[in-house]
């Protein structure tokens, strides 16, 4: 892991991941051991990995699988549901399954088509339905918090997109925890500081069987494009994705994001030598530099 300047064997890696997760859960005050957690499980590596980690850490975490009714020529929804159920059964965990088609009469692709939303792609409707259903189940079944498997690559790509358009509303809301509001469950992302490849490695090392294929509608999406761009940066500057995300969280927390400050005028006074404004107490940086050079020359 060049980004952390760290190399671990399998045994230690399998310890390190839950340890780190626990650290992030505490740092961002996501939930406590007495709270009931609902994990949104898609059958992919991140959500199954998250469920596995929470189980190993001893949290009370049940799963929620949403059947979206997406086929893509390889039975995407069927296969992902099978793997989610297999994981739950194998670990004696409780999995709620909600089938969108049974619940609302149509699967996601048909709902999108009939509602004419989303410019030929069902993702807008899918996102809307997922948020709605996750909230509904969390509220109706009395869960305290909803946990999703978003990893650092996901979060950095969203942040990148929101930054490109300076979408301040979205930027101010993006983070590891979205606090609960009237009728909305608290949402947390315990894996938000793990690279995608770290989660792949975790699942492989743990022998977790997950669906390798992405949803067929993900192809050509903006978020995949942003992930590729960020990966190019990461190749040349290991750690850049993590820094991008963490510095953003710091700036947001400190309240400095989008607060216009009169930086240019703050605490300035005239340099006693040249008279130009400076923020230092004495000589301005330029005059100090010249003084230093002169001192070196005369000694
Ligand atoms: S939104 Fe779109 Fe995803 Fe829904 S239709 Fe598939 S790609 S699953 S994260
Ligand atoms: Zn509603």
User: Stretches where pLDDT falls below 50 for ≥5 residues?
Assistant: none
Bound compounds, each kind once, are: Fe4 H S5, zinc ion
Helix content: 40-55%
Using only C-alpha atoms, the radius of gyration works out to 24 Å
What is the total tally of β strands? 8
Biggest pleated-sheet summary: 6 strands, mixed
Order of strands in the sheet with the most strands? 3-2-1-4-6-5
Q: Report the β-strand fraction as a percent range.
A: 5-15%
Separate helix tally: 12
Task: Provide the structure class.
Answer: alpha/beta
Separation of the first and last Cα atoms? 49 Å
What is the H/E string?
HEHEHEHHHEHHEEHHHEEH
Shape: elongated
The overall average pLDDT, rounded, is 93
Give an overview of the whole structure:
With 299 residues, the chain is α/β, with parallel strands linked by helices. Helices cover 50% and strands 10% of the residues. It contains 12 helices and 8 strands. The strands form 2 sheets. The protein has a 6-stranded mixed beta sheet, with helices on both faces. A two-stranded antiparallel ribbon has the order 7-8. Strand 2, helix 3 (76-90) and strand 3 form a beta-alpha-beta unit. Helix 1 (10-27) crosses helix 2 (45-57), helix 5 (108-115) packs across helix 6 (123-140) and helix 7 (152-164) packs across helix 11. The longest helix is centred in the first third of the chain and has 18 residues, at 10-27. The radius of gyration is 24 Å and the shape is elongated. The mean pLDDT is 93. The structure holds Fe4 H S5 and zinc ion (ZN). The site of Fe4 H S5 (Q46) has 8 residues, from helix 6. The site of Fe4 H S5 has 8 residues, from helix 6.
């Amino acid at each position: 892991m060049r980004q952390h300047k760290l190399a671990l064997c399998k045994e230690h890696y399998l310890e390190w991941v839950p340890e780190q997760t626990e650290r992030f859960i505490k740092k961002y005050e996501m939930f406590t051991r007495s709270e009931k957690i609902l994990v949104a499980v898609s059958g992919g590596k991140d959500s199954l990995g998250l469920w596995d980690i929470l189980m190993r850490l001893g949290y009370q975490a049940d799963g929620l699988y949403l059947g979206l009714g997406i086929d893509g020529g390889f039975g995407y929804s069927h296969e992902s549901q099978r793997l989610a159920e297999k994981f739950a059964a194998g670990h004696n965990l409780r999995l709620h399954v909600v089938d969108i088609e049974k619940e609302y009469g149509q699967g996601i692709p048909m709902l999108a088509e009939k509602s004419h939303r989303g410019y030929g792609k069902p993702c807008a409707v899918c996102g809307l339905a997922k948020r709605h259903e996750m909230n509904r189940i969390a509220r109706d079944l009395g869960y305290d918090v909803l946990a999703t498997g978003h990893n650092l690559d996901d979060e950095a790509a969203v942040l990148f997109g929101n930054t490109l358009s300076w979408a301040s509303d979205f930027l101010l809301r993006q983070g590891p925890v979205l606090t609960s509001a009237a009728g909305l469950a608290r949402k947390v992302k315990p894996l938000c500081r793990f690279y995608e490849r770290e989660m792949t490695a975790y699942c492989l090392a743990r022998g977790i069987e997950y669906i390798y294929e992405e949803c067929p509608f993900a192809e050509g999406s903006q978020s995949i494009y942003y992930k590729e761009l960020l990966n190019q940066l990461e190749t040349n500057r290991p750690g850049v994705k993590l820094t991008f995300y963490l510095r953003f969280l710091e700036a947001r927390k400190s309240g400095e994001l989008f607060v216009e400050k009169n930086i240019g005028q703050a605490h300035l006074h005239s340099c006693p030598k040249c008279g130009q404004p400076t923020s230092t107490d004495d000589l301005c940086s330029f005059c100090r530099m010249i003084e230093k050079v002169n001192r070196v020359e005369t000694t």
